[in-house]
Design goal:
With 146 residues, the protein is of the alpha/beta class. It has a single domain, classed as Rossmann fold. Helices cover 23% and strands 25% of the residues. It contains 4 helices and 5 strands. Helix 3 links the parallel strand 2 and strand 3 (89-100).
Length: 146
């Protein structure tokens, strides 16, 4: 059994929110790509609250800790989108691919994600429901030797 002085960590909210489930913490630089009017604003605000900063866009021009990629079936070639999202990602960083849930307009077939990820040089690790209409798939690039 493990314990910490004071009885353990404190939590400011009643439950862990979606931004925390995605692993976002204060000080992280998160790049948001593929935003459109259908993106979940509550999730976006929760992420910016969790990192205590605004997310950056594709013109950031510096390394980022993670990429939040909104993707819909109509957005084109998923492999191209994933490869583009690697541009500013720090080695060992994470891409969270956000797609409409199955049954929603423009949903992306999970098989398409499973097929596109390795072609883009990524490994799919987990999926999570992050809002009423959006699911998140965690993709990681293999670490490259320095």
């Amino acid at each position: 059994m493990s314990s910490t002085a004071g009885g353990g960590p404190t939590q400011s909210g009643p439950t862990t929110g979606p931004a925390e489930r995605l692993g976002f913490q204060p000080g992280m630089v998160i790049q948001e790509l593929g935003w459109d009017t259908d993106a979940d604003d509550d999730l976006r605000v929760a992420i910016e609250d969790a990192i205590d900063a605004d997310m950056v866009d594709g013109d950031h021009g510096n390394v980022v800790d993670a990429v939040l990629l909104w993707w819909r079936q109509e957005d084109g070639d998923l492999v191209d989108g994933l490869v583009d999202s690697l541009t500013d990602l720090v080695g060992g960083g994470v891409i969270w691919l956000l797609t409409p849930k199955v049954g929603r307009p423009n949903a992306v077939d999970p098989a398409d994600i499973a097929e596109a990820a390795p072609i883009a040089g990524l490994s799919q690790t987990t999926t999570a429901a992050v809002s009423k209409d959006w699911a998140a798939t965690r993709l990681v690039a293999p670490k490259t030797p320095a």
